[in-house]
Amino acid sequence: ALCGDDDWGRTWSRVVQHRFESKGDLHGHAVGNLLIVALWEQLGDHVQALDLVGKLLGAHGRVLPMSAVPLELQALVKGHDPELPDAI
């Protein structure tokens, strides 16, 4: 949705959404996620990695992570029965 509406943007949109179909470790993984991780490791900064992917796609917006550090979110849900976790 953020990609440029031209041949470049549409092509790269399809490429990054491609999921590998194999019997190997890459099965089911999207090219875009691998690209982001590779850039993150190369640049050492996840925001720079996302910005670079945005430039590649000709993005018209910007996506930023909620946090610069890994988080573990927890919530208490009123009326939730821990014995029935799928009931919500």
Provide structural commentary.
The chain is mainly α. It has one domain. The protein contains 3 helices and no strands. Helix 2 crosses helix 3. The longest helix has 13 residues. The chain is extended. 3% of the residues are buried.
Name a few traits of the molecule.
extended; mainly alpha; 88 residues
Largest sheet properties: none
Cα-atom radius of gyration = 18 Å
Count of folded domains: 1
Sum up the overall morphology in one term.
extended
Number of strands: 0
Classification by helices and strands: mainly alpha
Share of residues in strands: under 5%
Q: Report, as a whole number of angstroms, the end-to-end distance.
A: 30 Å
Question: What do the pLDDT scores average to?
Answer: 85
- What are the low-pLDDT stretches, counting only 5+ consecutive residues below 50? none
- Give the helix level as a range of percent: 40-55%
Query: How many helical elements?
Result: 3
Q: Sketch the topology as an H/E string, one letter per element.
A: HHH
Give a brief description:
The chain is an all-alpha fold and 88 residues long. The protein has three helices and no strands. The longest helix has 13 residues, at 31-43.
Question: What does the secondary structure layout of this molecule look like, with pairings?
Answer:
Elements: H1 7-17, H2 31-43, H3 46-57
